[in-house]
Amino acid sequence: MERRVGDEAMSNVRVRLFGAPQLQRGSDLVQTDTRKAVALLAVLLLDGPQGRESLAALLWPELDEQRARAALRRTLSPLRAALGKSVLEAGRDLVGLAPGASVWSDVTAFRDGLSRVAAHHSAGAPLCPACRHELEGAVSLATDDFLAGFSLRDSLPFDDWQQLRAEGLRRALAGALALQVADGIARGDFASALTPARRWLELDPLHEEAHRQLMRLYAWAGDRAAALRQYRACTRVLAEELGVFPLPETTALNEQIQANDLPAPPSPHLPT
Fold first, then answer.
1. Torsion sign over Cα 17, 23, 27, 28
2. Mean pLDDT over the full length of the chain
3. pTM summary value
4. Cα separations (Å) of 189 from 19, 149, 254?
């Protein structure tokens, strides 16, 4: 698998958007003068170049078009100073990062890493070493929710955009963790699959498939008591949050584990 040029160490500007936003230029942390500048940069990094009109409406919905576009101009100036004049392009109609700009962001690196794995990996097969390393690197970047703790009090459209992107990134992370779990099972390495399985469940404690995978992993790893505790935890959270019982397949899996009748794991896929 070929890795892209543009690693964090090679970039002059580094932007972290998982968790509290952080902007670094060279070795120095940079503070923008407004939250709108941070929001604007996040939009450009995730969605690419945008029209001035759409940016103005997204970030200053309470203003008329003329005043909103003026507010956008006032925000672009300090953001360009923070990033470096060659990083941001602001034309008459479009605003975006300059092509080839030396900017690294954790969200972009996360997305790109998952895309490279998806392009190289064959569904149903264990990950190759390069894909496994790529996936581990991508997952390690998602340390918190997108822009955790950040909001714009006067822009519901931006808050809606932020929530939508955060949900999409959580789904992408859940899929990556599920792939790590499946890869561990395919290799017969149940211990390595437990960590992503627990994190997968932390993303959504109501997701029964994640509970079932943890139950299987504990049982296959020889910890039957932990597998049975996981079923009780699943039962408890579903009752408390939704007022429902586990699905029949979850209950059936618990009964198999209780009876020491869990089907054997798939035979490990040995590298050729």
1. negative
2. 91
3. 0.89
4. 31, 37, 22
